[in-house]
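On clarity, I found the account of how folds are encoded harder to follow than it need be. What matters is that the chain and its backbone geometry are given together, residue for residue. For the editor and my fellow referees, an illustration may be useful. For illustration, here is how one protein appears when written out as sequence plus C-alpha cells:

___
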Amino acid sequence: MGTPNIADKVVVITGASSGIGESTAKLLAVRLSASLVTKRAEVEALIQRAVDSFGRVDVMVNDAGIMPIAPVAARKNLREFYKATMAIPADSIARAIAYAIEQPPEVEVDEIVIRPTAQDF
C-alpha cells in the first residue's frame, strides 16, 4: 500500500549501501545504484542522471557516513562508536525520513534532527 505523496517522488540517496541509507532506500522502494558515490563530481553526475531520467529530483537524502580511523587491534573508540550508532535502529530513522516525505505539498520539511529518546551515558 503506497503513500500518494511518496509514490511519484524522485529520491536520490547517497550512502545507501548499508545502515540508514539502505533501510531508507528499501522503505521507499527506490532502485539502488550499483556504484558508490564518493566524490563531488560523482554526486553531480548521479543527480544529473536522475534529472535526465525523471526530469527532476524531489528528495535528496545525503547519508554517506564515515567510520572512525584507528587500528582494529587498538579498539580505540570502536565500542563506543558502535553503541552510539546502534542507539536508534536504521529502520526507525528510515520511517522518520519517509514521514517527512509523506507530508502534503503545503508542508515543507527541510531538515530533520533525530535523537535517541534514551541514552545510557
Remarks:
- The helical segments are 4-7, 19-28, 40-54, 78-85, 90-102.
- The mean pLDDT is 74.
- The beta strands are 11-14, 59-62.
- The chain has one domain: 4-102.
